[in-house]
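> example.struct
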């Protein structure tokens, strides 16, 4: 009987040992899908209106000079972009919606991207004259985000200049002109 007990005990221990070395596994697939994203926003320090004024001249022979005054708000362009790897880089374009007086050129310059963002941030195209047709101001945007708010993304600086191709400056008068600038993030 003792011998039979020992055989049963050894058999049970053997089965337990074999069971502990058995491979028991299961698996399932996980499908991760990240949608393409193209989001764009403008943020200003104090207001949604940017004001640009002419500088007063004290000498009659001098031409009209345009300069940013202290009430020009700091405007920042923020964006988030997720794109397919094989697709072309994205870009930001701008155009004027409304009438700019004849004889005046409106320019916008985007700064380099602030260091607050991550990814393939866009590259400024420098000072660009804006008109009725979309003009690229920031290019080479990959998958990235700039962060949100002032001091994130690209700082936009506006300036005015006299269009040298306009001989007559009749359209320059003592009126305030308001128009919109439309920004688009596109492929």
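> example.seq
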């Amino acid at each position: 009987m003792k011998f039979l007990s020992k055989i049963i005990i050894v058999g049970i221990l053997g089965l337990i040992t074999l069971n502990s070395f058995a491979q028991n596994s299961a698996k399932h697939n996980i499908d991760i899908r990240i949608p393409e994203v193209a989001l764009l926003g403008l943020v200003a320090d104090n207001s949604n209106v940017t004001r640009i004024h002419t500088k007063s001249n004290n000498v009659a022979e001098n031409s009209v000079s345009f300069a940013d005054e202290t009430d020009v708000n700091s405007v920042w362009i923020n964006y988030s972009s997720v794109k397919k790897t094989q697709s072309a880089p994205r870009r930001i374009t701008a155009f004027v919606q409304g009438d700019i007086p004849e004889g005046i050129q409106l320019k916008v310059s985007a700064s380099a991207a602030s260091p607050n963002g991550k990814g393939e941030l866009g590259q400024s195209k420098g000072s660009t004259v804006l008109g009725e047709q979309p003009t690229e101001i920031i290019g080479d945007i990959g998958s990235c985000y700039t962060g949100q708010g002032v001091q994130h993304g690209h700082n936009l600086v506006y300036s005015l200049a006299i269009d040298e191709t306009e001989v007559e400056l009749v359209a320059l008068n003592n009126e305030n002109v308001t128009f919109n600038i439309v920004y688009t993030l596109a492929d």
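> remarks
The mean pLDDT is 80.
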